[in-house]
Fold:
Amino acid sequence: MVTIGIDIGSISAKAAAIAKDKLLGSKVILTGYNARQAGMAVFEGLLKELAIDRDAVGRIVATGYGRNSVDFADQAVTEITCHAAGAHFQDPEVRAVIDIGGQDSKAIALGPNGRVTDFAMNDKCAAGTGRFLEVMARALEVDLDAFGEMSLQADEPAKISSLCTVFAESEVISLIAKGARRTNIIAGIHASIGARVVAMANRLKLQAPVMMTGGVAHNIGVVKALEDKLGLPVQVSAHAQVNGAIGAARLAAGG
Amino acid sequence: MSDQEKTIDPEKERRKIKSVKTMKDIMTHYYIEAKTAEETGKKVAWITSGGPVEPLIAMDVIPVYPENHGAMIGASKMGTDLCEKAEGMGYSGDLCTYALADIACSTVNGGPIGGLPKPDMLVCGNNICGTVLKWYEVQARYYDVPLFILDTPFCHTEFSDEARQYVRRQIDEYLVFLETVCGKKCDHDHLRDVGRLSMEGQRLWQAVLDTTMNKPAPMSAFDAFFHLALIVTLRGTQTVVDYYTGLLEEMKNRVAEGISAVPEERYRLLWDNLPIWFKTRWLSDKFAAHKACLVADTYTSAWCGSLPYLDENNFLESMAEGYSRIYLNIGTDRMAEMVVEMIDKYEVDGLVMHSNRSCKPYSLGQYDIARIVQEKRGLPTLIIEANMTDARSFSESQIDTRIDAFMEVLKG
Ligand code: SF4
Structure:
């Protein structure tokens, strides 16, 4: 029996299918303004891509901010529990998850069974989230996807001291005006996100191995900044963006 | 929830607390009396929630609580408007929103009851915070009335003899202040009786709160938030004693009949900090849907927490300590100890902390308290970031997720 996880985030909707403890596949689309429709679209799209019959689908678990709008799901579970389950599915050794999504960031401590033992969330402020990076990419006129690589070329990372996205943006603009190199500014931006997220994560007693999930995990610069501040190695989920959906599918299977 | 549902659910009816009506009548009567004080020739004093009210009652002055008014403003969802007004007057939005709402309300006579009656004097106790000093100074200037400040030293661990003398002397000054403003002498025998009634009221309030030691709890913290108003405003009167005697009776009957606040209570939680007044209904339904009952809280119990330090045979003397050693005027370690005591007493499964942007002294040590609770009792804490009156700091879907995630952790 195939189980499905659907993760409706503020920016993208994700779906993942699992059967017999194996990930069959996943799909990501933009959420748009209608969470319900996005849930249906990503679900149907995934089934089509994997050539799975609707009748072959067992339980469905929905997660993410739009979890309660997926009316065809059997259960709604928060993304905290799902990210933990997803990370545990990928690597049962993982004891901590740091998830940086488009609009929020969270740190989760896991027990050996993959259950959440504690969590901390920043869901109030754009600093320390993907949105922060987007704003900075715009200010720097750099493609966000290039951020990771560029930051590795920094020789003297800039200091971004402001914790507020709006203030940090003007700090970046004045750095540009002063002629600071973009690579250094980007490295400074990553360090600032790292500091912000780790300050939150330190409220929990995080233990290694730490896995990073969420779309921002693809940015090597942020991963390095997190490792630096945490003083622990951070492994990047191979399915960072769909980890929540994988966890949901896994929970749907009763795991 | 949906008021379209006109059909009466007998189960819901059974669960309703019947004393609510009496309480509403008493509060209405109280506010009418206060608002007509000018006609009846009575004096009105505005006083802080932790202020020494007994001498006012003894002198037949009507005490009025801007903080209780702030709670009413919050509950009637008028907080944001008034806060914005105060910001427009130049006050920082980071200030206590009770202060903001009150200061703005004075200039427009707004809010749910068209503003508070004009004060003849102000009585400010800084045992709850430093904000009240400036707030009351602003109001003293605005209304051009005398202000009395009771300065209670912070009790990190203990209450020294020097502190006792210092506060005790101020109590005498307070009586002189009242005698001057009222133009009459204080009847000390009467004050003693008021002190006795005050303590009796506090004992009864504690007894009401303690009925939630029963499983299931006959009432929740959300009920306590409502029934609290009397012990705050009319402490020291027979009305309070009578009301809580009745409420206690009702709670005992509910326990005997197995009527619980939350249907099928499975999880018991402890609330910390002020209520989120404009969202109490939503929060109470939200937790109830998880079969979770907030059985106790650090807030409503603050109005009977001083009982160990008060002496009914020597009320005036004991006021110094009783009014200094209150929950917001002690060190974080002692606060954490009290939280742990409550966890054991009410047998709770987790802590819910309202991290309140508005009230700094209440929110400052919360992460430390959460850590201590985790270390000592291994219980998880949910942090809800909000504000007691201003809805601008409340984000429903985020808080919804946090509560669901926390309950998932508790359910394991
Ligand atoms: S800051 Fe806190 S203690 Fe002080 S008046 Fe405001 S709510 Fe009350």
Q: What stands out?
A: Helices of chain A lie at 35-50, 79-90, 130-140, 147-152, 165-177, 182-201, 220-230, 243-252. The first helix of chain A runs from residue 35 to 50.
